[in-house]
Amino acid sequence: MHPSASDLLTRAVADLAGAPKEGLGEERDSRWRGKRIVRVGEAWHLGVLLLTDTHALATAEVLRAADPGRRGYTAESARERAERRAEALKGGFDEGEVVHVGWSVIDVDAVDAGGASGPLALVDGIPSVRWSAAGGFMPLEAYLRERVELLRGAS
Questions:
Q1: Per-position DSSP letters for 74-98, written without gaps between them
Q2: What pTM, to 2 d.p., does this model score?
C-alpha cells in the first residue's frame, strides 16, 4: 500500500520547516492604483509544485520584482516581462524578490480518490507528478524527496 498524496505532501511540509519560502502574488487592477501584483501568501517552491502550510498549488508564472528602468526592448515579450516585474514591485514585493502568479490550488482529495488535479494524478495506484509539460509522470514520493533535499540544501 502506497502512502496517499495528502500524506506525502503533509510529510514534505513538515520536512520543509525553516526552509526559505517565496511570495505568492495575485493580480489586482484599480482605477486609482493601476495594475499591480499583491502578496497573498508564501510557499515553498518545489518545481511544478508550490506548498503552503495548508495547500498544494500548481506553479504558473514565476518572476522577480524589479524596476523596469528606462530600457529599450527589442522584443515585445521582454517589455511585457519588465512590466510584470514592475507590477510586483508596485504591489509591495521587494526588489529582486521571487513572486509566483497565476498558480492554482490542487485538489489533493481528488488525487487520493483516484483522479487527477493540476500536475498530480494517481497512476497505477501510485501518487504521481507530471514534472514538466512534455514529461511523463514520476512517483510523487521520489519527486518530493529530491526537491525537498534541493531546497533544504539551498538554505
A1: SSHHHHHHHHHHHHHHHTTPPTT-E
A2: 0.90
Cell reading at 71 = 530600457
* Sole residue written with cell 504558473: 60
Using alpha carbons, select from 148, 146, 151, 121 the residue that is nearest to residue 136. 121
User: Which domain range does residue 98 map to?
Assistant: 5-154
Cβ-based neighbours of 125, under 8 Å, separated by 6 or more: 2
Question: In terms of DSSP bridges, do strands 104-105 and 56-58 run parallel, antiparallel, or are they unpaired?
Answer: antiparallel
> What does the pLDDT look like over 19-50, one tens digit per residue?
999 999 999 998 888 899 999 999 999 999 99
Q: Into how many domains does the chain fold?
A: 1
Choice between 134 and 47, residue whose per-residue pLDDT is larger: 47
